[in-house]
Amino acid sequence: MKTYQTYLFDFDYTLADSSRGIVICFRNVLERHGFHQIDDHTIKRTIGKTLPESFSILTGITDTDILEAFRKEYVKEADQHMTVNTQLFPETGKVLHSLKNNGATIGIISTKYRYRILELVGKVFPEGFFNIIVGGEDVKTPKPSPEGLNIAIERLQTDKATTLYIGDSTVDAETARNAGVDFAGVLHGMTTREELAVYPHVSIADTLEELAE
Question: Which Gene Ontology molecular-function terms are recorded (predicted)?
């Protein structure tokens, strides 16, 4: 795989495993409203989508006011449960430090809120380690809209031809395609190699270490 100047990462299931915290938060909200039969696997398959999208998929509800109320309840749950139940993947620190040491620009583009990402990475990385973090509150249209990637590319004044977006889901792959940047898939999450391979990609790897080689 060629060397890029800028490496932009999804967060959940790409740099970190926050699935335990996510499941707890979803389950607490869902159980509160009478949705008792939704299993963990089904919840995990929605990771990477916006909270209203995920709640709609899980419950069949389409009323925007109800979905917004669920979203607000989830955020309150996440304030309590998310950080303590999120861990970076074992190779994340090594790979990111290696990229930085080699002069690369690195950032995060996620549907997760930026303040939550900062709270999580602040436990491991020094302040200012990431050149940019674009979270869900920073865009008008969430992934697979290219808005987040385009914001990062513009602010970093980098070239799309030398930018790689790394993610675990088909939403991430579609986002990269819509932005016109290369995509590399990592199989940390619930999306299979076959599902990712449908989309344009330069690599699909089991771990981030393989992508950095």
Answer: phosphoglycolate phosphatase activity
